[in-house]
Structure formats: C-alpha cells, structure tokens
C-alpha cells in the first residue's frame, strides 16, 4: 500500500513535469510554425523573423538539453570523488565566463578529505547551475565564494554570491519546474540540482537577502577511508 502510494506520488510529479515540458516547448513551436506558414504564403521572412526563429529553436534545445541531464540512466555511474577537486574543476571551467561578467571566484576548502560517492557529471552540473545563477544575479559583477567544510560524516559546500538576492516569498518556489525570475530563464536549473542532490542522499538549502546576496548550501554524506575499504572488499568478492 505504502509502495503504491509512493508510486502514484511519483507518477504525479512525472506527469506534472511532462505537462510543463510540453507547454514550454509548444510555445516556441507555435511561433516557429507561424513564421514557416508566413513563408509558405510567399511573404518573405525578414532578418528579425529568422533571428526570432533561431532563438526559439535555441530555447527548445536548451530545455531538452537540461532534461537530458536527468534522463540518462545508462550513464549513471557512481564513483568516489573528492568534492574539492570536482568544485575546483568546475570553477576553472567557468572562469572565463565569470571574467566576462566581472565576476571573480574564490574558495576556502577544508584540509580534510571530502570523498563522496557521486555521479561526477551530475555533481558538476549542480555546481555549474549554482555558479551560473550566481553570475546571473550580479549584473555589475562581484565575487562568488565557495566554502567546503567537513564535520564528521557530512560535507558542506556553500556557494555565496553578492547578487540581487531572492525575496523571501520566492525562495519556497525555487526548484519548482519552470519557476524563473528571469526573462529568458528556463526555471530548470534549481529543480535539476535539487533532484541530483537528493539522489546523492544530500540536502540543498537556500538563504538569501535582497540586495545583499544568496548562499546555496549543499550537504552530502562523506565517505570515510574505512568505508572505502569496505566498498573495495565488497567488490573484490
Ligand atoms: P533560471 O536560472 O533558468 O531562471 P533556476 O532554476 O536556475 O532557473 O533558478 C530559478 C530562479 O531562482 C531564477 O530565475 C532566479 O530568480 C532565482 N535564483 C536562483 N539562484 C539565484 C541567486 N543565486 N541569486 C538570485 N536569484 C536566484
Ligand atoms: Mg539557472
């Protein structure tokens, strides 16, 4: 019974998500169809039309692309990685983009080992989403600071920006599919990040103050050396 309930809850979420995706994709498709119809009636499309068509196509591509991150079951492979390494890799990946927006990255990392069991690409995607949101929240530039700490079996990663912040009544809505405060946002980044963190047995929290900045905190269970040995022994058997 409990299992059935859980299944039906899952179906509802998937159903809601599917309805949202369908809706979000239908809008740009309608625009594209309209323009093609215009062309068929031999009213030549001008540059404005075609550039709008391109941006609508890009939007569909962006939405589908974000969903592909979630829908790759065959690629889900959990390995042992140090969160500090993964985070530093993502920061250098985004460094030139940050630079373009006058954003500087900084970090303070614990000396303790921060091994986690993770699907590396998914975890990277979470960091990418959070850092991008930070950049987008600072139109005049600023600093994004990442702090990694370890307390017993928990690793805490917090990413702090000095951006526009989030009004309190908006915080609860973040992570709902397609909830965006941006003109050309997809509203998928936080939902996908939350799902990824939950599938890693972790938690994600948002703290924010308007015009001061935002801190997103992720908590992940740490693998200690002992449990690593445990995993090794198990796989050797
Ligand atoms: P998108 O970035 O495409 O809008 P997200 O799911 O990544 O979608 O974020 C949803 C919304 O949450 C954003 O549009 C923005 O309004 C708000 N948000 C998320 N992170 C931040 C941040 N660091 N600072 C300010 N607002 C944020
Ligand atoms: Mg985003």
Automatic annotation (TrEMBL):
The lineage of its organism: Bacteria, Bacillati, Bacillota, Bacilli, Bacillales. It is found in: Cell membrane. Residues 20-224 form the Histidine kinase domain. It comes from Paenibacillus radicis. This is histidine kinase. The chain holds residues 390 to 626 of 626 of the full protein.
